[in-house]
Amino acid sequence: MSFSELFDSEFKQRNKGHFSAIVRVALADGIVYPEEKAFLDKLASRLEITESEYEEILSDPLKYPINPPYSYVQRLERLYDLTRMVHVDHHLEDKQEVLLKKISVALGFTPSNVDYIIAKALSLVDNKVDADTFIYEMQHMHK
Known about the structure:
By secondary structure, the protein is mainly α. The protein has helices at about 5-25, 35-45, 50-60, 70-90, 95-105, 115-125, 130-140. This is TerB family tellurite resistance protein.
């Protein structure tokens, strides 16, 4: 296996892990609503998830581990996607919020700050900010 193939493989596994984390949030209430399905479809395309991988992840989202990104900005990008999934069905349920917190800790956010981080993330997504604004605001929320 060449170096580039190894890199592509690791990148693909990270995308599958990220997508499976979002599927877990979507399935937290036991139902994937049409808005959630549309979001998953769009995200799968963006993450280069094939149709067969998509179906496999939907059937068993726990199969893929959450691989936290190395950079803080990449963690924020993933948090943005996760928060939008929770927000997409317009009613935050306890299971989804608890799962969002657990996945946020798995992504590398500090457990002692996760409640504050999630509250800020949900507030920003509720205000329909774009990804760049979300990242900027999250990076500067203590200033």
